[in-house]
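Our consortium's second objective concerns turning raw sequence data into structural hypotheses that experimental partners can test. To show how far this objective has progressed, the report includes one record in full. It was chosen at random from the queue rather than selected for favorable results. The single chain below, 266 residues long, was entered without modification.
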Amino acid sequence: MPNVVVAQDVDNAEAAFLAAHPNLFSQTPWGAAQRNREILPRIASGGGRVIDLGGGVSSVAGLLARLGCEPIVFDNFEYDIGWISATGDAEFTATTARRRQALADDGVRFVDCDLCEVSLADYFPPGSVDVITSFHCFEHLHHSPRRLLGSALDVLKPGGLLLIETPNSVNLLKRAKVAAGYTNYASFHDYWNAEVFGGHVREYSFGDFEKLATLLGIKDYTIYGRNWFGTLNHFVGQGLMFCFVDGILKVVPGWCGSLFFEARKS
């Protein structure tokens, strides 16, 4: 019988994961938790080998391992702009090492690499991977992901899932900000002071993902928007008003805070 995963299984997996690693991983923020409850069941149902591109040492890979998958994280692990800002580089490095070891103990594999240069075909034979995911990573890449995504399609099984999530470069709030004369780029202060800039280099739009599908020859795909990240829930809370506004925005994915590109290999 195939392994069927539902949202409650994700909640249970997180509770067990946090209990196993106290004081190392914190409760998943509200927005990411909503994403996990909706998206991870689609990834984990059936189990299988899952490659996470740019996943770092987040709890997502640990949850996938507890949901019966074989997760492999590809990343450079050199820096994370959020952690560096919050803790300072020395503490970030030590915390990253501890979290990476904890995830490895749970069955997560890691590959240190430059995502702009790596080919997944160097690590996996054709048609041997069930799912390839990337959550809020591609907007940080300084060069084209052409080689990476071409190899991703090579190693995916027929019917395998490719799922990419990025911020929407032209969501409704950004359109309003630009019209009012404000930039939709990262803060200039962060860009100016970073020795190695790890912020957003190129966010994606609905049209970008359509073009990506054409360039990769992908026929079976869908693009949809969600609003778990960004400022919407700060404005309206996380209750009925959020559900109402989110429901309206989702009708036009190009207005949403984040975009998902979900494709199946033919």
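The partners drew two points from this record. The longest strand covers residues 156-167. The chain has one domain: 7-264. Both points have been shared with the crystallography group to help prioritize constructs.
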